[in-house]
Amino acid sequence: MMKIGKRALLVAAGCMVLLCGCTKSNIVQPDASAAEEPDFNIYNNIELDMDQFHDEVNEICLDENDYPMADSLDFTIDEDKALIDVTIVVKDGTSGEDAAEYADAVLKSINDEAAVQDYNYGESGEDTFGGFFQDRETNLKIYEKSAYESDGEPMYETDIPADTYMTFDIQD
Question: What domain of life (predicted)?
């Protein structure tokens, strides 16, 4: 019995010696070449990642819990014409007031996602769509789902001049 205990103790001590001697710790003195310096440079004219941009706006604006009236939305940005086309589709039976509030939230979300990718754009606020819309005209169309699917008329359509905030008065 004593022989097994001594043998186990010797094996354990040997393992400890081997493990301690064969490793290099980077915890106390990390390799200086592996550490990157933070980039404090200011960059202008950042190109937005449009796939991520659309995904993030859709994730926010099509959330069933926050926007139960939402069905779908799409937007295109034509930088050459300084134009944003926004198409919002709400569920059938959505009130004009709810559609108007949702359109306001969508435009502000588009701006705020642009501001996440390029901090040069000011965030939206109570009376502003935000800095992304400062130099861009916006064409907004709001459809009920059945009208959109049948290529019908939008329940509301407007052009918003650049750097303009407006509310939407949508009649039921």
Answer: Bacteria
